[in-house]
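Worked Example 4.2. Consider the chain below.
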Amino acid sequence: MKKLFLTSTLLLLTTTSVYAATTGTLLLRGVVAQKVSLVVTPQSIASTLDLSTSQTDLVVASVNEQSNSKTGYKVTISSANSSKLKRTDGADVLTYTLKYNGSAVALSSSTGTTITNSSPSSVNVNKSVSISYTGVAAEAMVEGTYADTITFSIAAN
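Applying the procedure from the previous section yields the following structure tokens:
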């Protein structure tokens, strides 16, 4: 009897641990990395400007902005010569104004202008860059190459 009791108790203990659960969970997870980038694509006219002819809203480039930042992003635009085409081997200048996507951009300070997009959505957009200036007759300017470097940068907010 003692053997039967011990055997049945042992059998009872081992069979109860074999029962399966009635529910379970599975965690599925993926990670999307932050992407914030821009590409500047100049028009051919950007490097062959006719400085003797006035220009109004002449499109000189396109900028592709991409961002998936949940806090949005900002684009900073700055000019090496404070919105002036400067003769590369001298001090002579021709002043111009710049528009980014149709809006005027102040480039007179060394920090330039920052444009903020606070939308947390995914963005992939092209924006135009245009300049305007008053042409000066060649005989009224010192010969040479006049240039300025515009820097575009993008960062998450």
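The longest strand covers residues 55-67. The mean pLDDT is 91. Compare this with Example 4.1 before moving on.
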